[in-house]
From TrEMBL:
PANTHER family: GLUCOKINASE, ROK (REPRESSOR, ORF, KINASE) FAMILY. Keywords: Kinase, Transferase. The keyword Lyase does not apply. One of its GO terms (molecular function) is kinase activity. PROSITE patterns: HTH_ASNC_1 (PS00519), ROK (PS01125). This is Sugar kinase of the NBD/HSP70 family, may contain an N-terminal HTH domain. Belongs to the ROK (NagC/XylR) family.
Amino acid sequence: MAPGASAGEVFGLIRGGLAETRADLGRLTGLSRTAVTLRVDQLVDRGLVVETAAGGSTGGRPPTRLVFNADGGVVLAAALGASRSQLAVCDLSGRALATATVEWADDPAVMLAAVADSFDRLLAGRRPLRGIGVSVPGTVEAGTTRSVSPSAWVDVDIPAFFAERYGVPVRVDNDVNALALAEHRAHPDIDDLLVIKVSTGIGAGIISGGGLRRGAMGAAGEIGHTKVVDGGGAVCRCGGVDCLEAVAGGWALVRELTALGRKVGTALDVAELARADDPDALRLVRAAGRHLGGVVAAAVNLLNPAMIIVGGDLARAYEPLVAGMRELIYQSAAATATRDLRIEPGTLTDGGTRTGCAVMVLDDVLSAASVNAAVAGRPVAVG
Protein backbone atom coordinates (compact mmCIF):
# COMPACT_ATOMS: atom_id res chain seq x y z
CA MET A 1 0.00 0.00 0.00
CA ALA A 2 1.31 3.44 -0.94
CA PRO A 3 2.33 5.89 1.81
CA GLY A 4 -0.44 8.26 2.86
CA ALA A 5 -3.01 5.55 3.47
CA SER A 6 -6.34 6.94 4.65
CA ALA A 7 -8.25 6.03 7.80
CA GLY A 8 -10.54 3.89 5.65
CA GLU A 9 -7.61 1.97 4.20
CA VAL A 10 -6.12 1.50 7.66
CA PHE A 11 -9.48 0.19 8.85
CA GLY A 12 -9.55 -2.28 5.96
CA LEU A 13 -6.20 -3.70 7.07
CA ILE A 14 -7.45 -4.14 10.62
CA ARG A 15 -10.84 -5.55 9.60
CA GLY A 16 -9.18 -7.98 7.19
CA GLY A 17 -6.80 -9.24 9.87
CA LEU A 18 -3.73 -8.01 8.02
CA ALA A 19 -2.63 -5.61 10.76
CA GLU A 20 -2.91 -6.17 14.52
CA THR A 21 -0.61 -3.48 15.91
CA ARG A 22 0.39 0.09 15.18
CA ALA A 23 3.77 -1.24 14.12
CA ASP A 24 2.05 -3.48 11.56
CA LEU A 25 0.21 -0.47 10.18
CA GLY A 26 3.38 1.56 9.91
CA ARG A 27 5.14 -1.27 8.08
CA LEU A 28 2.27 -1.92 5.67
CA THR A 29 1.36 1.69 4.89
CA GLY A 30 4.56 3.65 5.29
CA LEU A 31 2.78 6.09 7.60
CA SER A 32 4.70 7.77 10.39
CA ARG A 33 3.95 6.85 14.00
CA THR A 34 2.08 10.14 14.41
CA ALA A 35 -0.04 9.51 11.32
CA VAL A 36 -0.82 5.94 12.42
CA THR A 37 -1.88 7.21 15.84
CA LEU A 38 -4.15 9.84 14.28
CA ARG A 39 -5.93 7.31 12.07
CA VAL A 40 -6.28 4.71 14.79
CA ASP A 41 -7.68 7.33 17.18
CA GLN A 42 -10.22 8.36 14.53
CA LEU A 43 -11.35 4.75 14.12
CA VAL A 44 -11.52 4.18 17.88
CA ASP A 45 -13.55 7.38 18.35
CA ARG A 46 -16.13 6.10 15.85
CA GLY A 47 -16.40 2.72 17.51
CA LEU A 48 -14.96 0.77 14.58
CA VAL A 49 -11.78 -0.38 16.29
CA VAL A 50 -10.89 -1.23 19.89
CA GLU A 51 -7.50 -1.66 21.49
CA THR A 52 -6.93 -4.66 23.74
CA ALA A 53 -3.99 -5.93 25.76
CA ALA A 54 -1.73 -7.99 23.52
CA GLY A 55 0.29 -9.73 26.22
CA GLY A 56 2.86 -9.15 28.90
CA SER A 57 4.98 -6.03 28.97
CA THR A 58 8.77 -5.98 29.14
CA GLY A 59 8.74 -2.45 30.43
CA GLY A 60 7.26 0.83 29.32
CA ARG A 61 3.84 1.11 27.75
CA PRO A 62 1.96 -2.24 27.66
CA PRO A 63 1.60 -3.60 24.12
CA THR A 64 -1.85 -3.34 22.58
CA ARG A 65 -3.65 -5.15 19.79
CA LEU A 66 -5.99 -3.44 17.33
CA VAL A 67 -9.26 -5.30 16.81
CA PHE A 68 -12.19 -4.68 14.49
CA ASN A 69 -15.10 -3.85 16.77
CA ALA A 70 -18.03 -5.98 15.58
CA ASP A 71 -20.07 -4.46 18.42
CA GLY A 72 -19.56 -0.94 17.12
CA GLY A 73 -23.00 -0.77 15.56
CA VAL A 74 -25.64 -2.81 13.79
CA VAL A 75 -27.16 -3.25 10.36
CA LEU A 76 -30.64 -4.42 9.41
CA ALA A 77 -31.16 -7.13 6.80
CA ALA A 78 -34.35 -8.19 5.04
CA ALA A 79 -34.61 -11.03 2.52
CA LEU A 80 -38.06 -10.56 1.03
CA GLY A 81 -39.52 -13.67 -0.56
CA ALA A 82 -42.79 -14.80 -2.07
CA SER A 83 -43.04 -17.78 0.30
CA ARG A 84 -41.54 -16.13 3.38
CA SER A 85 -39.46 -13.10 4.31
CA GLN A 86 -36.60 -13.27 6.79
CA LEU A 87 -35.33 -10.27 8.75
CA ALA A 88 -32.44 -9.76 11.14
CA VAL A 89 -30.49 -7.19 13.07
CA CYS A 90 -26.79 -8.03 12.76
CA ASP A 91 -23.55 -6.85 14.30
CA LEU A 92 -20.78 -5.47 12.09
CA SER A 93 -19.42 -8.95 11.39
CA GLY A 94 -22.77 -9.97 9.93
CA ARG A 95 -23.74 -12.18 12.87
CA ALA A 96 -27.49 -12.15 13.49
CA LEU A 97 -28.37 -10.80 16.93
CA ALA A 98 -32.13 -11.25 16.55
CA THR A 99 -34.37 -12.47 13.73
CA ALA A 100 -37.98 -12.21 12.61
CA THR A 101 -40.24 -13.21 9.73
CA VAL A 102 -43.03 -11.35 7.98
CA GLU A 103 -45.70 -12.55 5.60
CA TRP A 104 -45.43 -11.56 1.95
CA ALA A 105 -47.87 -8.93 0.69
CA ASP A 106 -48.40 -8.18 -3.00
CA ASP A 107 -49.01 -4.51 -2.16
CA PRO A 108 -45.53 -2.92 -1.79
CA ALA A 109 -46.79 -0.27 0.65
CA VAL A 110 -48.25 -2.91 2.96
CA MET A 111 -45.15 -5.10 2.72
CA LEU A 112 -42.62 -2.35 3.35
CA ALA A 113 -44.62 -0.99 6.29
CA ALA A 114 -44.69 -4.45 7.86
CA VAL A 115 -40.94 -4.82 7.38
CA ALA A 116 -40.28 -1.41 8.93
CA ASP A 117 -42.44 -2.23 11.96
CA SER A 118 -40.52 -5.48 12.43
CA PHE A 119 -37.21 -3.61 12.02
CA ASP A 120 -38.24 -1.24 14.81
CA ARG A 121 -38.84 -4.20 17.13
CA LEU A 122 -35.54 -5.84 16.16
CA LEU A 123 -33.57 -2.68 16.88
CA ALA A 124 -34.94 -2.48 20.43
CA GLY A 125 -32.53 0.28 21.38
CA ARG A 126 -29.52 -1.19 19.57
CA ARG A 127 -27.44 1.63 18.12
CA PRO A 128 -25.81 2.98 16.15
CA LEU A 129 -27.64 1.74 13.08
CA ARG A 130 -25.17 1.95 10.21
CA GLY A 131 -27.11 0.63 7.22
CA ILE A 132 -29.86 -1.56 5.78
CA GLY A 133 -29.63 -4.34 3.18
CA VAL A 134 -32.72 -5.63 1.38
CA SER A 135 -33.20 -8.31 -1.25
CA VAL A 136 -36.27 -8.87 -3.42
CA PRO A 137 -37.34 -11.86 -5.56
CA GLY A 138 -36.88 -10.17 -8.90
CA THR A 139 -34.73 -7.88 -10.99
CA VAL A 140 -33.38 -4.71 -9.41
CA GLU A 141 -32.39 -2.07 -11.95
CA ALA A 142 -28.71 -1.20 -11.87
CA GLY A 143 -28.00 2.40 -10.93
CA THR A 144 -31.43 3.24 -9.54
CA THR A 145 -31.78 0.07 -7.36
CA ARG A 146 -35.53 0.28 -8.01
CA SER A 147 -37.41 -3.00 -8.16
CA VAL A 148 -38.31 -3.97 -11.72
CA SER A 149 -40.21 -7.17 -10.85
CA PRO A 150 -42.34 -8.96 -9.68
CA SER A 151 -45.19 -7.24 -11.51
CA ALA A 152 -46.81 -5.47 -8.54
CA TRP A 153 -43.40 -4.13 -7.49
CA VAL A 154 -42.36 -2.48 -10.74
CA ASP A 155 -40.54 0.83 -10.13
CA VAL A 156 -40.82 0.59 -6.33
CA ASP A 157 -38.20 2.87 -4.74
CA ILE A 158 -37.27 0.66 -1.80
CA PRO A 159 -34.12 2.62 -0.84
CA ALA A 160 -36.06 5.88 -0.54
CA PHE A 161 -38.66 4.28 1.74
CA PHE A 162 -36.14 3.03 4.29
CA ALA A 163 -33.72 5.95 3.94
CA GLU A 164 -36.48 8.41 4.79
CA ARG A 165 -37.44 6.41 7.87
CA TYR A 166 -33.98 5.58 9.21
CA GLY A 167 -31.55 8.04 7.61
CA VAL A 168 -28.84 5.46 6.89
CA PRO A 169 -27.42 3.97 3.68
CA VAL A 170 -29.76 1.43 2.07
CA ARG A 171 -28.64 -1.18 -0.43
CA VAL A 172 -31.05 -3.29 -2.48
CA ASP A 173 -30.40 -6.23 -4.80
CA ASN A 174 -32.20 -9.31 -6.01
CA ASP A 175 -32.30 -12.35 -3.77
CA VAL A 176 -29.94 -14.54 -5.78
CA ASN A 177 -27.22 -11.89 -5.87
CA ALA A 178 -27.49 -11.57 -2.10
CA LEU A 179 -27.22 -15.35 -1.74
CA ALA A 180 -24.18 -15.35 -4.04
CA LEU A 181 -22.44 -12.78 -1.83
CA ALA A 182 -23.10 -14.93 1.24
CA GLU A 183 -21.87 -18.11 -0.45
CA HIS A 184 -18.75 -16.36 -1.72
CA ARG A 185 -18.03 -15.25 1.83
CA ALA A 186 -18.37 -18.90 2.89
CA HIS A 187 -16.01 -19.97 0.04
CA PRO A 188 -13.40 -17.17 -0.03
CA ASP A 189 -10.97 -19.34 -1.98
CA ILE A 190 -13.39 -19.68 -4.94
CA ASP A 191 -13.33 -16.63 -7.21
CA ASP A 192 -15.50 -18.08 -9.99
CA LEU A 193 -18.76 -19.28 -8.54
CA LEU A 194 -22.22 -19.85 -9.98
CA VAL A 195 -25.01 -19.87 -7.38
CA ILE A 196 -28.35 -21.30 -8.51
CA LYS A 197 -31.43 -20.63 -6.38
CA VAL A 198 -34.37 -22.91 -7.03
CA SER A 199 -37.36 -21.87 -4.96
CA THR A 200 -40.69 -20.42 -6.04
CA GLY A 201 -38.74 -18.96 -8.96
CA ILE A 202 -35.30 -19.68 -10.42
CA GLY A 203 -32.28 -17.41 -10.70
CA ALA A 204 -28.48 -17.40 -10.76
CA GLY A 205 -25.91 -15.29 -8.97
CA ILE A 206 -22.56 -14.89 -10.71
CA ILE A 207 -19.25 -14.42 -8.91
CA SER A 208 -16.53 -13.97 -11.53
CA GLY A 209 -12.97 -12.97 -10.78
CA GLY A 210 -13.94 -12.55 -7.13
CA GLY A 211 -16.69 -10.00 -7.79
CA LEU A 212 -20.46 -10.09 -8.19
CA ARG A 213 -21.58 -9.52 -11.79
CA ARG A 214 -24.91 -7.71 -12.11
CA GLY A 215 -24.87 -6.87 -15.80
CA ALA A 216 -25.63 -3.62 -17.60
CA MET A 217 -29.21 -3.37 -16.32
CA GLY A 218 -28.92 -5.56 -13.23
CA ALA A 219 -30.50 -8.53 -15.01
CA ALA A 220 -27.49 -10.88 -15.11
CA GLY A 221 -28.47 -14.35 -13.95
CA GLU A 222 -32.17 -14.12 -14.85
CA ILE A 223 -32.15 -17.68 -16.18
CA GLY A 224 -35.69 -18.43 -14.99
CA HIS A 225 -37.13 -16.97 -18.17
CA THR A 226 -34.81 -18.73 -20.58
CA LYS A 227 -36.89 -20.69 -23.08
CA VAL A 228 -36.56 -24.49 -22.98
CA VAL A 229 -37.10 -26.62 -26.07
CA ASP A 230 -39.29 -29.27 -24.43
CA GLY A 231 -41.52 -27.14 -22.21
CA GLY A 232 -44.75 -28.51 -23.64
CA GLY A 233 -46.30 -25.08 -24.02
CA ALA A 234 -46.25 -24.31 -20.29
CA VAL A 235 -47.44 -20.77 -19.61
CA CYS A 236 -45.18 -18.73 -17.32
CA ARG A 237 -46.15 -16.11 -14.75
CA CYS A 238 -44.40 -13.56 -16.96
CA GLY A 239 -46.88 -14.27 -19.75
CA GLY A 240 -44.35 -16.14 -21.86
CA VAL A 241 -44.42 -19.78 -22.89
CA ASP A 242 -41.91 -22.54 -22.09
CA CYS A 243 -39.81 -20.49 -19.68
CA LEU A 244 -37.52 -22.58 -17.48
CA GLU A 245 -39.44 -21.36 -14.43
CA ALA A 246 -42.74 -22.53 -15.93
CA VAL A 247 -41.52 -26.13 -16.01
CA ALA A 248 -38.99 -26.27 -13.16
CA GLY A 249 -39.86 -23.50 -10.69
CA GLY A 250 -41.40 -24.32 -7.34
CA TRP A 251 -44.71 -22.70 -8.24
CA ALA A 252 -44.94 -24.86 -11.37
CA LEU A 253 -44.28 -28.06 -9.43
CA VAL A 254 -46.87 -27.03 -6.85
CA ARG A 255 -49.36 -26.67 -9.70
CA GLU A 256 -48.51 -30.11 -11.08
CA LEU A 257 -48.68 -31.88 -7.74
CA THR A 258 -51.90 -30.15 -6.76
CA ALA A 259 -53.46 -31.43 -9.98
CA LEU A 260 -52.40 -34.92 -8.91
CA GLY A 261 -54.17 -34.54 -5.58
CA ARG A 262 -51.19 -33.70 -3.36
CA LYS A 263 -51.62 -31.05 -0.66
CA VAL A 264 -48.71 -28.71 -1.35
CA GLY A 265 -48.56 -24.94 -1.26
CA THR A 266 -44.87 -24.00 -1.56
CA ALA A 267 -41.59 -25.14 -3.10
CA LEU A 268 -40.55 -26.30 0.36
CA ASP A 269 -43.63 -28.53 0.52
CA VAL A 270 -42.62 -30.08 -2.81
CA ALA A 271 -39.10 -30.73 -1.54
CA GLU A 272 -40.37 -32.36 1.64
CA LEU A 273 -42.69 -34.58 -0.37
CA ALA A 274 -39.78 -35.68 -2.56
CA ARG A 275 -37.65 -36.34 0.54
CA ALA A 276 -40.47 -38.57 1.76
CA ASP A 277 -40.07 -40.59 -1.48
CA ASP A 278 -43.40 -39.63 -2.99
CA PRO A 279 -43.06 -41.02 -6.53
CA ASP A 280 -44.74 -38.12 -8.33
CA ALA A 281 -42.75 -35.53 -6.40
CA LEU A 282 -39.51 -37.38 -7.12
CA ARG A 283 -40.36 -37.64 -10.82
CA LEU A 284 -41.17 -33.95 -11.10
CA VAL A 285 -38.12 -32.81 -9.14
CA ARG A 286 -35.80 -34.95 -11.27
CA ALA A 287 -37.40 -33.57 -14.43
CA ALA A 288 -36.98 -30.04 -13.07
CA GLY A 289 -33.30 -30.81 -12.50
CA ARG A 290 -32.88 -31.92 -16.12
CA HIS A 291 -34.56 -28.77 -17.42
CA LEU A 292 -32.35 -26.69 -15.13
CA GLY A 293 -29.21 -28.58 -16.13
CA GLY A 294 -29.85 -27.92 -19.81
CA VAL A 295 -29.92 -24.17 -19.18
CA VAL A 296 -27.03 -24.15 -16.70
CA ALA A 297 -24.84 -26.08 -19.16
CA ALA A 298 -24.78 -23.02 -21.41
CA ALA A 299 -23.78 -20.86 -18.44
CA VAL A 300 -20.97 -23.30 -17.64
CA ASN A 301 -19.60 -22.96 -21.17
CA LEU A 302 -19.88 -19.17 -21.01
CA LEU A 303 -18.55 -18.53 -17.49
CA ASN A 304 -16.41 -21.60 -16.70
CA PRO A 305 -17.13 -21.53 -12.94
CA ALA A 306 -15.01 -23.59 -10.55
CA MET A 307 -18.10 -24.42 -8.50
CA ILE A 308 -21.86 -24.47 -8.85
CA ILE A 309 -23.79 -24.09 -5.61
CA VAL A 310 -27.43 -25.11 -5.63
CA GLY A 311 -29.65 -23.54 -2.98
CA GLY A 312 -33.22 -22.49 -2.37
CA ASP A 313 -36.26 -24.29 -1.02
CA LEU A 314 -36.49 -26.87 -3.80
CA ALA A 315 -32.83 -27.75 -3.22
CA ARG A 316 -33.89 -29.31 0.09
CA ALA A 317 -34.59 -32.29 -2.22
CA TYR A 318 -30.96 -32.02 -3.32
CA GLU A 319 -30.19 -35.52 -4.58
CA PRO A 320 -33.04 -35.95 -7.08
CA LEU A 321 -32.80 -32.33 -8.22
CA VAL A 322 -29.04 -32.36 -8.79
CA ALA A 323 -29.04 -35.84 -10.33
CA GLY A 324 -31.05 -34.38 -13.19
CA MET A 325 -28.83 -31.29 -13.35
CA ARG A 326 -25.60 -33.29 -13.50
CA GLU A 327 -26.95 -35.47 -16.28
CA LEU A 328 -27.55 -32.52 -18.61
CA ILE A 329 -24.59 -30.39 -17.55
CA TYR A 330 -22.02 -33.11 -18.19
CA GLN A 331 -23.82 -34.17 -21.36
CA SER A 332 -24.11 -30.69 -22.87
CA ALA A 333 -21.23 -28.56 -21.54
CA ALA A 334 -17.69 -28.64 -22.89
CA ALA A 335 -15.37 -31.21 -21.35
CA THR A 336 -12.76 -28.58 -20.46
CA ALA A 337 -15.38 -26.53 -18.58
CA THR A 338 -16.61 -29.51 -16.57
CA ARG A 339 -13.31 -31.33 -15.98
CA ASP A 340 -12.77 -29.91 -12.47
CA LEU A 341 -16.27 -28.50 -11.92
CA ARG A 342 -17.73 -29.03 -8.45
CA ILE A 343 -21.49 -29.05 -7.87
CA GLU A 344 -22.41 -28.73 -4.21
CA PRO A 345 -25.39 -27.88 -2.00
CA GLY A 346 -25.62 -24.44 -0.46
CA THR A 347 -23.86 -24.07 2.86
CA LEU A 348 -26.41 -21.52 4.06
CA THR A 349 -29.65 -23.49 3.87
CA ASP A 350 -31.56 -21.28 6.31
CA GLY A 351 -31.14 -17.54 6.24
CA GLY A 352 -28.47 -17.52 3.54
CA THR A 353 -30.08 -14.73 1.53
CA ARG A 354 -30.61 -12.74 4.71
CA THR A 355 -26.91 -13.16 5.51
CA GLY A 356 -26.14 -11.92 2.01
CA CYS A 357 -28.19 -8.78 2.65
CA ALA A 358 -26.05 -8.07 5.70
CA VAL A 359 -22.83 -8.73 3.75
CA MET A 360 -24.02 -6.44 0.96
CA VAL A 361 -24.60 -3.43 3.19
CA LEU A 362 -21.58 -4.09 5.41
CA ASP A 363 -19.23 -4.17 2.43
CA ASP A 364 -20.66 -0.77 1.53
CA VAL A 365 -20.81 1.05 4.85
CA LEU A 366 -17.46 -0.36 6.02
CA SER A 367 -15.67 0.35 2.73
CA ALA A 368 -12.68 2.68 2.77
CA ALA A 369 -14.69 5.42 1.04
CA SER A 370 -17.54 5.24 3.56
CA VAL A 371 -15.21 5.17 6.55
CA ASN A 372 -13.29 8.14 5.17
CA ALA A 373 -16.54 10.06 4.72
CA ALA A 374 -17.56 9.28 8.31
CA VAL A 375 -14.16 10.36 9.65
CA ALA A 376 -14.35 13.60 7.66
CA GLY A 377 -17.89 14.26 8.90
CA ARG A 378 -19.30 14.08 5.38
CA PRO A 379 -22.78 12.61 4.85
CA VAL A 380 -22.89 9.12 3.34
CA ALA A 381 -25.39 8.54 0.54
CA VAL A 382 -28.49 6.94 1.98
CA GLY A 383 -30.13 5.63 -1.17
